[in-house]
Amino acid sequence: MTDELIARLSNNLKPVPHNAVQLMILGALAIGGVVAVSALLMELGFRADIDVAMLGPVFWIKSAYTMAIAVLGGVLTLTLVRPEGRIKWPWFAAPILVLILALGAATQLMGTDQQTAMVYILGGSALVCPWLIVALSSPILATLLVAMRRLAPANPTLAGLAAGMLAGGPGRGFIRSTVAKTAWHSF
Amino acid sequence: MSEPDTTETRLRALMLESLNGDAGAYRTLLSELRRHLYRYFTRRLHAAHAAYAEDLVQETLLAIHSRRMSYDRKRPFTAWLHAVAHHKFVDHVRRYSLRVTVPLDDDAPLFARDDTADAATRMDLDTALHTVPKRTETLIRKVRIEGASIAEAAKASNMSETAAKVSIHRGLKALTARFSGGNK
């Protein structure tokens, strides 16, 4: 039985490229990203003032923040899809990033009167944005999870969380380029 | 028996060749892993579950095949192998809810030498096997202990398969007669 199995497995052996895991995750990101961007362009279109917004620092700060979270998610994903993969530091780095952003938002709020502060907190899109972010992140998450099913995460829950961080980054990034208004989007 | 380090070097070299598409190396690798894994699982399984060892070996070999992409060529192979085997073992324990706990960090490495209990057994085994002719001893060791096939063992001892089979049978019979503690 086992002999047959070994014969069968070694008879249809296909070579594995170097960096196969990285290629697979990148491929999943690319496919999911294309789907998300096409959905975005079809349904929403870029925000009218995208050219102005891209000149301001706030747009880039938020983008850097979301990208940083996504990069942490990427590092975690690439390690956790291997059966013996163990990594800790991104789990600590991510909350620190969130904390820094919260401090930044808090200092911004300190300097404003109560009325304006409420506008900043709620913004004009807090009711819509979370759903849009989820909607745009989901194709990326879906392709990522499909790719990860072919790998061997030791802890699927943690690996899924890492993939969520990775997928959520671009999702938020795309949204930012359409309707961004408040600091709270990034949550 | 080779040191763990050379085992790692050898198996890793085979794995790298296999990943590059060398079917021969892959076949050798899987056959070696089969023996190692069989020992790995029998050592961990509850006596009542010993019969599952071969199933677990097959499941692990399948997993190694279908997930071989997840092996990072730059990292130790036995660590990867051990992780895969460990998860198969945990799956088994969960499936039969044996409630055996296996803390990850305390888990013995895959290619650790046998522990003292096994060493005592091995000494007994050596003494017993010395009572049969040298050639028979080699054959019994190869086939019954190291898990080689009759054909392999016969070839190594330069005799026909039938002769090897007969020799093993006689040897075992002699041993049984000697150690069963009475005339049969």
UniProtKB/TrEMBL annotation, chain A:
The keyword Transmembrane applies. It comes from the Bacteria. The keyword Transcription does not apply. The chain crosses the membrane at residues 21-46, 58-80, 92-111, 117-147. InterPro entries: NrsF. Keywords: Membrane, Transmembrane, Transmembrane helix. This is DUF1109 domain-containing protein. It comes from Devosia rhodophyticola.
Automatic annotation (TrEMBL), chain B:
Residues 28-96 form the RNA polymerase sigma-70 region domain. Residues 123-175 form the RNA polymerase sigma factor 70 region 4 type domain. Keywords: DNA-binding, Sigma factor, Transcription, Transcription regulation. The keyword Ribosomal protein does not apply. It holds the Pfam family Sigma70_r4_2. Belongs to the sigma-70 factor family. ECF subfamily. This is Sigma-70 family RNA polymerase sigma factor.
